[in-house]
UniProtKB/TrEMBL annotation:
Residues 116-322 form the ATP-grasp domain. This is phosphoribosylamine--glycine ligase. Pathway: Purine metabolism; IMP biosynthesis via de novo pathway; N(1)-(5-phospho-D-ribosyl)glycinamide from 5-phospho-alpha-D-ribose 1-diphosphate: step 2/2. Coiled coil: none annotated. Belongs to the GARS family. The keyword Coiled coil does not apply. The keyword ATP-binding applies. It comes from Acrodontium crateriforme. InterPro entries: ATP-grasp, ATP_grasp_subdomain_1, PreATP-grasp_dom_sf, PRibGlycinamid_synth_ATP-grasp, PRibGlycinamide_synth, PRibGlycinamide_synth_C-dom, PRibGlycinamide_synth_C_sf, PRibGlycinamide_synth_CS. It is an enzyme of class 6 (ligase). Its EC number is 6.3.4.13. Keywords: ATP-binding, Ligase, Manganese, Metal-binding, Nucleotide-binding, Purine biosynthesis.
Length: 431
């Protein structure tokens, strides 16, 4: 590989804008081509948005990468990884390194039944569960199951395939919706029915080369649309990091009982994990338990965690691909960070697109950032909305309270009709 990285970054969310922003700061990075990108990546130095090829068309991506002398692939979202983009590049453009797992390793997110069976094989603490591909069998089970349950569609459902029924009728309705009505398409051909755990949730993003792990500060997401954790689930309405709800002793326990055994287990089974493993955990009275794995950076966790990273992200990505992560240290700021997501009116239901926006310039010197998600930049320089989660304000501060206050001031830079956001991000830590 030439010393300069010419990166192909896949995705168009807030996570990808944050990755582009962080990677562009590296002296190792020459250019970043973002497929398809958004209004935020369009304005990042060294970055260009590419809409002439589709993120799903692996052959076209390889052709584009080869003709533009790109040498490093960074898939942002889960869908291309689950579809095997890393394997395709390895076969058709072996000179290009990829920070992201193989198709088999991506099943840790792509199939909830696969990941639960994996946890059972490797004694990784998780909720009691049973997997079903038969609607009739699942129906029989919910009538006799001895604990409160969660029902999860097996496949990718954009973070919405998890249902918490309050009673037997709701459980039966959920099974019908997922398995018979195909509410989530093929993602619902099988389900996991598991024990409903209680306790605070925590997200940990860990870089891995297949052997070693380096984790970013633990974050806490806010999944529900409404203040006080009310209303329907979303892809995530805001995060803060590090969360004080997890102690140093608990983090050490998570490393020892969850993260390292997960990486070791994948290696032992012949699909070592290179990329970012995002582990969602619940801190129960019986210790930390895994809720789910994701095989890529979180969104909006990345927006909170990456501004706290002082190390060169590109250097860490290269080390992960080269198997030399153990020789690297992650330098983390002692600050706290908070991200507030601004969504379109109506989200997570139906919402308008194409609404004109005003976005002021944040003072990055003062630790205030704006990360775009569902935005586009027109030829005339006008930003418009193009998604449900539109944009986010992030801030860092010496204390969590300072970071939260600055993030909400950052929201004041954003204006568009119908915008909605939670007013209580980090409320669990600031009680």
């Amino acid at each position: 590989m030439s010393s300069q990285l010419r990166i192909l970054l896949l995705g168009n969310g807030g996570r990808e804008h944050t990755l582009a922003w962080k990677l562009a700061q590296s002296k190792l990075v020459d250019e970043i081509h973002v497929v398809p990108g958004n209004g935020g990546t369009a304005a990042v130095p060294k970055c260009r948005n590419v809409t002439s090829v589709s993120m799903d068309d692996h052959a076209a991506l390889v052709k584009y990468a080869a003709s533009n002398n790109l040498n490093f692939l960074v898939p942002g979202p889960e869908a291309p990884l689950v579809a095997g983009v890393a394997d395709y590049f390895k076969e058709h453009l072996p000179s290009m390194k990829c920070f992201g797992p193989s198709k088999t390793a991506a099943q840790m997110e792509g199939s909830k039944t696969f990941s639960k069976d994996f946890m059972e094989r490797h004694s990784i603490p998780t909720a009691e569960f049973k997997n079903f591909d038969s609607y009739e069998e699942a129906l029989k089970y919910v009538e006799v199951v001895p604990y409160n349950i969660v029902i999860k569609a097996d496949g990718l459902a954009a973070g919405k395939g998890v249902i918490l029924p309050q009673n037997l009728d709701e459980a039966k309705a959920a099974l019908k919706e997922i398995m018979l009505d195909k509410e989530f398409g093929d993602a619902g051909s099988s389900v996991v029915i598991e024990e409903c755990l209680e306790g605070p949730e925590v997200s940990i993003l860990s870089l891995s080369d297949g052997t070693s792990i380096l984790s970013l500060p633990p974050a806490q997401d806010h999944k529900r649309i409404g203040d006080g954790d009310t209303g329907p689930n979303t892809g995530g309405m805001g995060t803060y990091a590090p969360t004080p709800l997890v102690s140093k002793a608990q983090l050490d326990e998570i490393d020892r009982t969850v993260l390292q055994p997960t990486i070791d287990g994948m290696k032992a089974e012949g699909f070592p994990f290179c990329g970012c493993l995002f582990t969602g955990l619940m801190l129960t009275e019986r210790g930390p338990k895994v809720l789910e794995y994701n095989v890529r950076f979180g969104d909006p966790e990345s927006q909170s965690c990456l501004p706290l990273l002082k190390s060169d992200l590109a250097e860490l990505f290269v080390a992960a691909c080269d198997g030399t992560l153990a020789s690297k240290k992650v330098e983390i700021s002692s600050d706290s960070s908070c991200t507030v997501v601004v969504a379109a009116g109506g989200y997570p239901g139906s919402y308008a697109k194409g609404t004109p926006m005003k976005v002021g310039s944040p003072n990055e010197q003062d630790g205030v950032y704006v990360f775009h998600a569902g935005t586009t930049l027109t030829g005339e320089g006008q930003w418009k909305t193009s998604g449900g989660r539109v944009i986010a304000a992030t801030a860092t501060g010496a204390t969590l309270k300072e970071a939260v206050d600055k993030a909400y001031k950052g929201v004041g830079l954003i204006e568009f009709e119908g915008m909605q956001y939670r007013k209580d991000i980090a409320h669990r830590a600031l009680k």
